[in-house]
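Sample intake sheet
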Amino acid sequence: MLVGRDLTVRRGAITALQDVSLELRPGQVFGVLGPNGAGKSTLLATLSGELRPSRGQVLLQGRPLGDWADVERARCLAVLPQSSTLSFAFRVADVVAMGRLPHRTGRGADAAFVAAAMAAADARHLATRSYLELSGGERQRVHLARVLAQLWPGETGQVLMLDEPTSMLDPAHQHSILKAVRAFAAQGAAALVILHDLNLAARYCDRLLLLKDGRSIVAGPPDEVLQAEPLRAVFGLDVLVQRHPELGHPLIIAR
């Protein structure tokens, strides 16, 4: 699907990413965790083609990412950056419809895809509102709907990458949005999500990568990654790891 091999990114004298490898698999949500400055956003920018690695390679469907034409790549790779802004009073439905620009599926199909994406992001009730009238959390959901619409309905070969999509959301919407990402991946797409909340990562991600200082510390299923020792080493946080009483995934409690 999408593979990063030995990715190293240097910015002047600073090495922002050092020999990081990962694979995004169809039907799975891959979470990236780490403290501020760990290299999470640099990794996403490299995987999406925004940054060119100093060393290493990114492959999308077995082809080097640089070999893809922009429109062709946009049909199967969508990115929600950490912050997305617009300074024009577009209707929300029109903002979400921008996600369909790489496609030629026709107005009727596009309208259905846009409506479905807005429903998945809990933004359908905002459709006729001006984007500039929205709160920060509402804008976040609108931009999520836009990138979902870009790939909707999701299929094998497509990749969705989200940089801290829950950062401006209340707890209920944090869960509803990550449920939407899981449901989208269930259609066959792969998803990468950068998160800060360890318990959200434990609940919604199939695999995790723990980064510190641009290096991969540990990668694997949540049961292997969310252990007391690596979390202490990366975050400087003393934690107790238990099991969720109903769902069985790791439950992280700060001591």
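Comment: The longest strand covers residues 14-24. The first helix runs from residue 40 to 48.
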